[in-house]
Amino acid sequence: MTPEIILLALSAAAIAFVHTVLGPDHYLPFVAMANARGWGMKKTLRITMLCGTGHLAGSVVLGLLGVTLGIQLSSLEWLESVRANIAAWLLIGFGLAYTAWGLRLAYRNRPHTHRHSHGGTTHEHVHSHFKDHVHVHLREEPADRKSLTPWVIFIIFVLGPCEPLIPLLMYPAARENLSGVLLVTGVFGVVTVLTMTAVVALSLKGLASVKLKRFERYYHAMAGFAILVCGLGVTFLGI
After folding, report:
1. Is the separation of the CB atoms in 5 and 178 below 8 Å?
2. Which residues sit opposite 114 in a β-bridge?
3. How many CA atoms lie within 13 A of 235 on its CB side?
4. What is the pLDDT of residues 56-111, one digit of tens each?
5. Rounded to whole angstroms, how far apart are CA atoms 161 and 59?
6. Within the chain, which residues score under 70 in pLDDT?
7. 118 pairs with which residues across the strands?
């Protein structure tokens, strides 16, 4: 193993960590959906790892093809840019649709007044179906219930590229040897996925101690809005 490859491997670890932490789209969607849909910690981390692996796979395959076939870096960067735009707009679309659905759900389950008469006495009480219906069916998904939400997020992450991987790491490593490319790519991938899961786990632990009962019926709308903001940030701010 050459000193250049060792340096690239260390750089890969640092770049993967910083790139993931500074990109809220790598973890905020999972935290938001876990909180809204009542996913447990294990399920959330499984989905995060699966999406993180898919997120890396596209860029890894593309980079290896480029290295093997001698495709020019400019061509790959153009293709990665197109993929990034598609993924960002899909994130925006999903976030917007989920926000609208969440607001509709919150409106339908707003507190309302019931009037009862007992023996000539009439009384009123404020009532909400949120806890009786929505909470049970949407925030505590049974194991055998099939939800498309994780798969939608997975597809978006597969389309989204790891921007630093090919130009900053894979191509420089290819100047040394193929084993160096595999090592650098592996380090980048492992650190990226571990950082994603660690940030998600810490965020969920922090949210568990925050009680927001007044806003519980807005959890789905809040989750959709968080995803929408991530997509807008990627598209217009380049985060």
Report:
1. no
2. 125
3. 15
4. 998 998 888 888 888 888 788 888 888 889 999 999 999 999 999 999 998 888 66
5. 6
6. 110-146, 212
7. 121
